[in-house]
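Components:
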Amino acid sequence: MDSTVTAGAEENVWGGGNRPLGASYGKLMMWFFLVSDALTFSGFLAAYGFSRFKFIETWPIADEVFTHVPFFHGNFPMYYVAFMTFVLIMSSVTMVLAVDAGHKMKKNAVIWYMFATIIGGAIFVGSQAWEWATFINGDYGAVETKGGRILQFVKADTGERASISDFAIEIPGDRELHEKKNGIWYYEEGTRTSLSLEEVTKGFKADSNILIRTELLDEEGEKTLLSREQSLEKLKSATMVVEGANLVQNEYGSRLFADFFFFITGFHGFHVFSGVMINLIIFFNVVIGTYEKRGHYEMVEKVGLYWHFVDLVWVFVFTFFYLV
Amino acid sequence: MAHEHKLEIFRGLVKFKSNTQKIWGVLAFLTLITVVEVALGIIKPKSLTGTYFLGMKVLNWIFIILTLVKAYYIAWDFMHLRDEKTALRRAIVWTPIFLVMYLVFILLVEADYIYNIYKDGFVTWNF
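Structure:
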């Protein structure tokens, strides 16, 4: 190739010395990273789709899992996640406004818009932490069968979910948690549930108003409700009480649901967290005037790309985890 | 980067006076879509959950299409893809789309196969 580059390099776009794509090296590399990161997230979401299609008839209904709003009691499906989505879109807007102000070399405007973006990101991460805590603590409690499936309880007269503490009958006794220091030293019992299986079973037999619902979805897309006789029969296969969710057990239904929830929203939350950190660094650079001296605010634009990408991923996570 | 922005959206149907105005306009549009999504998710109209298109509920198709619309406006207006050169834009957009479509197709077909094995085969798992 001709090594001399002339100003009129029309016929020799890729010969070097110019920018065929009209973007700087840094911006191109940011896009390069974002495309590969998009593929990573797509891989996770596709894996989620795989597991969901595999257990399409028994997958938990997201509306029934995420029903809480901080400071309010009651059943509010989706509201809080919708709020989180809006916060993230809003912080994307302040970010793009910061980029716009940067093009016009308005330092103070960049500072304030970036500050608002960071606050928005912090609210989102905090909300996600709250969402995790609620999910981990659980709602109603359930029992797990020999096959590892979840049985939940419903009040027959109202059709509402019944918490295991509503009907379980306490059996007095002083069973202690088996710790390394009070038993076999190499054996440890995990956290104990607030009620034992015997207590739940006893309460269930005494209260004829309680029915069991299985994971299986019927034609309406609702969980299958068993009759009282079927419920009593089904409860015999229960092996343990499950409260809340972790990587091994999940009172809301399929364990894979909890695993993917922790993994995908966790990975996304990690991105938001690092986005907030990167934004902070750039924010302080703007404050001390680094980019004013440099003569352009392209760094703000580059971290802006990353921040919008985080928002973009959330749009997909929101759809595939909470809506579909 | 610091060049002129293309200020029209919806294929020229709406044209904004400045870039700042366009940003707020896009925000309004994205918020509207989110509100529609959440409202549909809470109401779940029977007419949409009961009817199927290509093996999936119409409601889910609506969610996925609305998501792609949202993604389009985030990428085009917030990430300024609208202002980039066509070659760069195509390289960024079509590479993941092609790979993801391929991966999703493979995985979902395989998952459906396993679902049928569990359903019709001799393995009991739901007990």
